[in-house]
Structures are given as C-alpha cells and as structure tokens.
Amino acid sequence: MSIKAKKSLGQNFLKDETVIENILALADVQPTDWVFEIGPGTGVLTSKLVERAEKVMAIELDHELVLHLTERFNASEGLSLLEGNILDMNLKEVLEVSQFSEHPYKIIANIPYYITAPIIRTLLSLPYQPVSMTLMVQDEVADRLSAQAGSMSLLSLMAQYYATVEKKLFVSKESFEPAPKVDSAVISIIPRRAYDKEEDRKVFRLARAGFSARRKTLVNNLSSSLNVSKEMVEAKLAELGLRSDIRAQALSTDDWENLQKIF
Fold this sequence. Notes:
The protein is of the alpha/beta class. Helix content is about 40%, strand content about 20%.
C-alpha cells in the first residue's frame, strides 16, 4: 500500500534509521517493557518496538494508516492497534481495558507539531502516569519546554510543574519524508507528581495572570489581572525573597508553587 503524508494531519514520516535507534536508546526499551506509542505513522518505529518490548499499544488517527498497520503487523501478537484522536479518547478507560493501568509503561510519540501542547498536557494529567515519555517535537518547542528560570513560559511551566523535562537529541528536518519546514528534537519527560485538578487550577490561574503581558513586571500583571494592589503583590514576592521588578519568565517552577501557597 502506497502511503502519502497528509498535510491536514501534520504528517511527516520519520525515515532515518539512526534517529530511530537513538529514540529506542533514549527510551531505554527493554524486553519486559510495555510501550504506549502515539502516532505510529507507517510503522517504522513500531516494528522495532514490537521486536524489543513485551507489549505495544499504538494509537493512530489516520484510517488509511490504520489499515496499513493492521496489514503490516497482522502476525504480531504483542501489538494492539487503536484508531482515534488521542485528544478525544477516554485514555483512563483505554489504559484500564488494555491493563496498562496495572503495569509500568513508557510513552513514545512523534506528535503533530500543531497539537504538541494539548497532547503533552493530556499525557501529564493521565490518572495512570507512565514511567517516562520520549517525544519528538519541533526543535523550538523542545527549547521552550526545557527552558530554565529566566526564559520560562506558560508552556515550560506546565510541563515542568509535573515532570522533569530534558532536550536529548536534535533531529534534522531531512530525517523525515516529506521534510518539514523546521527541525525537530527528542525530549525526555519523567513525571514527578500526580495531576491534581484543584492544585492545577490554583497554580495556573496565577501563572496565566503572571504571563499575561511578558514585557510587564510580575507585580503589574498580577495586580491588574487579579484586581489586587501592587503593594500586596510586592509584599508576597518579598516573602519569597523575590524582587519587586521581577518578570514572570524569571520565576522557577518552585517559585510558582510557593507563590500559590501564600497568594
């Protein structure tokens, strides 16, 4: 079956064998591993996972690719293939029915760039957290996700509040077919705390206010967005040893957590 990438789905198929082997090494895929693959595409990485892992569950949105994968892996007992949009699926139920909820598992994904943030947020809020996530994302997004205090954004805070994030591997656009307009990178995400809806609401209500205007100071943003006095905000920042002229991007994940506790 001849497969043509669909631009509407943001498809670019990984073809570089060296990159594939590097992804497997970074994810440290072992014979006893259970792996949840998102966006298997034509199955180039899936074929390696089926050989090396005990069990693989792959979710693919494109019906044409699902037919291709079903035909390609019809003799693979360790692979279960699901069709659907991961953002619309009841992943709690998927993990329970597949018994991934009862077994340590890893996520490996080459996710469409235009829905990177929603997918990562969805994965970080899973009720059954993976041991690790090894994700292919746009190179620029990898830098933003792994940014340190001084260059933080809502995206990096969202990821780092729940996990340790590291950019591991640069991947040239020439490693894909068709070649996208931008380079990519592989990031490692290691969850470090469970998702808490109420805690999440409090922290990110504050963070969204803090990042509302990047060129303004945190005092100005919090004061105007939350309708509180600048003096009150300055006093709260002083409690944490933070300057009154500091901007949101200069705060660390711990700073945001501590600020939420006293605000």
